[in-house]
């Protein structure tokens, strides 16, 4: 366990029963959970290597209750960790020993479907997929589609700015959310944006999205919905070298084609997936691309031809083109099951999530191979090739002493390499606790201070989800202090007009 | 008043730090093309970033370009156009509307965040700003975001910088997403529809699977004397509803026919192609019918953003109650309203109508005198305004940067 959480406030813990009683006065009955056995399901999220039971769990079902809980906690100096479905892969919803875990699971209602304005107004506990299902009868869907879409909540998607395989063409959560109702740590309820394309004033919705539950608790969200493309077809293309596959991706983009999805898998990932789902993946290739084109039939047919020609020009060794929905789904089945497939060949795995410039792919994979040697741990790579988002899956066995530590060190080195190659620490899973201590590899102290000042504008006491995202916490008073830079007041060298 | 022409990010830091120490606010400008938008500022010196004009890197295959903030937009558009790429949000050229020369700089484009017709499909400036280096009102150079399209590392401060009108930080270098230009475009033209029916036609088109990338309506009154910039497409005295389809040629042509069939209940659409289509959308993007040189050149112009299906209802009210003219873009979600001149630019009517449907209104063009009397930017609900102010202070506690631009009376 390399990551340390903030020290628990013993004074708060000593008042636990009083706090539970106060929360019960706000949320009655089963909405407050304080027994160790019942709280166990909340002790971790999708980053299961880290576990911590909360002080108490509260499950409000109205915005007013959320507001009262936060107001009470703010007044009492009690930390709060918000949680949606608990599918975060970066530990964003990891509880704190001295914190209230605020679950939004009871916010399960879609409040309004407005086809004329092409939006859905929903509560945050609704799953990503349920939104698409609710509008499917009219041919609409909600575009961002993280792999966990069956389970993950739309509130969590907003908190993490979730992506998915189609975000190259259709954007991430931030590009598909128009407004929200948010409760600040003070208990204040605000409405940001709505059904209009843009808000007045600063783009607060833009900065709330992806803020990992540190700025406020979202109780309602307005998302854009789109009409489903007429058709979609996929190509499955194999290459004898990773470099050739990388070149193919670059040439497709260079030719002005933005596929609906463009995924790459390396040999270990291909083998694991094929053994699991029997999708008919070629086993003698070093890299496999799945390229999906969507739109009107006439467009898809034409682009399939163009992509096929580009792939051949890059030396593809196999190329299959889907001729039916069943076949297209089969191509995807292996990719979509890549994580559980890897789970079958290794007792445990760590799923990493860095982004690199597409052109750096061969370099990045070569580095991962070196690191795999160095740490003596296997690694399978799946990759949102279109947007440079890498998901190395580091294989380890938690029962073998020292392996988890080696796996974490391996993962950290991969993410540092992503930054070194011009990329970033996380493309879609969030910083959470997982990459928190690597933030200094990408950002200077000045960069991080500016981010924390923004946090102060929303939560001056730092009570909402502390210990996530930022490696070092500063008091808002200290961050807001203006350092007058002594000395030069004039600008001696500057041309004046 | 001093104009300080900075050469690099270090200079910007130095100027801002000196301004903090002497508590002298700065006006941030590139080419000054949008200087007439916003309130009159209380600034004692001008920080001119136009010499920060380099293209740091352009990687067409990565779909990104990194530029210094003072890079001239016109040059950058030519550069990316040569690789058949574009800024998909169609940044507006404010020159015709404001009667000022030039497209301005990249920094101005982002700080203003005025997106064109494709906003309904591709998003706005905020959706294309991937990373930035900027100097805050603390006098510190910081970076946010990165140089890749997919990134969730830390708060997305880029979203705040886009549309902040230079009040949060001085951007020095930015990385923007570029997208391939469509091979071909088609525009369906329906003629003679009244605003309410046109709004329904646009709603139907945007709710179709044909991937419409522009939906605008020009009521007949929008062509007072001549149809500025609209060439042969518009006929005086006849309303025009335009729907754009872009993509590879076969696809755009196919979808144009399909959409025409789907919209048959609204009339028989003409189809115009490529150059003629592009000229029409440039005219709509830049609001040429209300251009500074045209018949309505002396009228104040409002930019009302609202839920798209409500567009016609409030657009009609605005036109009737102010005696003005309106143009609809974004399927009804953006209304440009030119209103007969009055001391307050008829703000009460415009704002009341916008708010009634959950929209907001910004006064884009007005004389300095009018801008002293009227809030240029839409006043927000108190709680949201207070949060916005705390956010601003978190970047610029001494209000050194563009003091007074967003808020009347702050100067």
TrEMBL record, chain A:
Query: Keyword Nucleotide-binding on this protein?
Result: no
Please name the Pfam families in this protein's record: FAD-oxidase_C (PF02913), FAD_binding_4 (PF01565)
Locate the FAD-binding PCMH-type domain: which residues? 50-228
Checking InterPro entries in the record gives: FAD-bd_oxidored_4_C, FAD-bd_PCMH, FAD-bd_PCMH-like_sf, FAD-bd_PCMH_sub2, FAD-linked_Oxase-like_C, FAD-linked_OxidoTrans_Type4, Oxid_FAD_bind_N, Vanillyl_alc_oxidase_C-sub2
Q: Does the keyword Flavoprotein apply?
A: yes
Q: Which UniProt keywords apply?
A: FAD, Flavoprotein, Oxidoreductase
Which cofactors, by name?
Answer: FAD
Identification of the protein by name:
FAD-binding protein
Species name for this entry?
Answer: Bradyrhizobium iriomotense
Classification of source organism: Bacteria, Pseudomonadati, Pseudomonadota, Alphaproteobacteria, Hyphomicrobiales
Identify the gene encoding this protein. glcD
Automatic annotation (TrEMBL), chain B:
State the UniProt keywords alphabetically.
Answer: FAD, Flavoprotein
Q: Which residue numbers delimit the FAD-binding PCMH-type domain?
A: 1-181
UniProt-listed SUPFAM superfamilies = FAD-binding/transporter-associated domain-like, FAD-linked oxidases, C-terminal domain
By what name is this protein known? 2-hydroxy-acid oxidase
Q: Which taxonomic lineage is given here? A: Bacteria, Pseudomonadati, Pseudomonadota, Alphaproteobacteria, Hyphomicrobiales
